[in-house]
Amino acid sequence: MKREEWFNYQKLNAEQLNTFRENGFLIIKKIINPAGITQIQNECMTAWKKEKESFDPDKSWLQNSLLVNIHHQSPAVRDYYFEGPLVDIASQLIGPNIKGATSQLTFKMKGNTKPFGWHQDNGYGELEPYNALTTLTALDDTDRGNGCLWLIPGSHKQGQIRVAQNEEQKKSQSEIIVEADESLAVPMEMKAGDALIFNCWMLHKSDGNYSDSRDRRILFLRYADADAIEVYNGRKPRLGRLVKGTTRFEEVKQFESEL
Asked: Domain of 68?
């Protein structure tokens, strides 16, 4: 199978676009075919094992569960991130000019029972304009048993929630937890190869992985307007590879141009 056949390219229809506007999220089924999932799993696990050890309850979430810039270590992820079906979907939801803003693995391996509380992704890296997208592609079947995501439909309409942090909390990269009505939460159960897409203001959380035999491995890719700036960093342009359209920032035009 050719690499481009690993992915299922598609456009969102009017109903899906309206659902995203109202609820703030969509699940796209089978966006990666089984052969593509196997390749991505293999490459991601090779990278993971180079840098990560087994789960340690005394380590931070960052140490136990996250590996950044996975597209630097996985050619299959790089193709999916920069040229896969999520790029066209992002252009429908954000606009014609798109850049990749983040790529990472967020793995909750069996035995990692640490929850991650309610938060907005734009709380950890506030970008403007406020239309950045988080995409989570499941590399395993994910459900309540192995720590799937939960979110609150429509919560993106609250806008940016400000959480005060002192300098020590910022330096330690402590969790930015916000209050949420648990009764409104919906589990995002997916099959391997499905992708969850949601607005940067969406309230979401994940519980621990209480399965004794199943990992919960997710590929986290974030897309933003090509001219998006970092509000938290002197309003500098967010660096990321331009994947569609144009940008006014020369730094973005040149970023990762060698890849």
From this structure: 3-254
DSSP for residue 159: -
Number of domains in the chain: 1
Residue 69 near residue 104 (C-beta atoms within 8 A): yes
Cα atoms found within 13 Å of the Cα of residue 166, Cβ hemisphere only: 1
CATH code of the domain in which 37 resides: 2.60.120.620
Q: What is the pLDDT of residues 5-19, one digit of tens each?
A: 899 999 999 999 999
- Give the global pTM: 0.92
Whether 259 is covered by a domain: the verdict is no
Indicate whether 238 belongs to any domain: yes
Q: CB neighbours of 167 closer than 8 A, spacing ≥ 6?
A: none
The four Cα atoms 211, 214, 215, 217 give a dihedral, to 10 degrees, of: -120
Q: Reply yes or no on whether the pLDDT at 170 is more than 80.
A: no
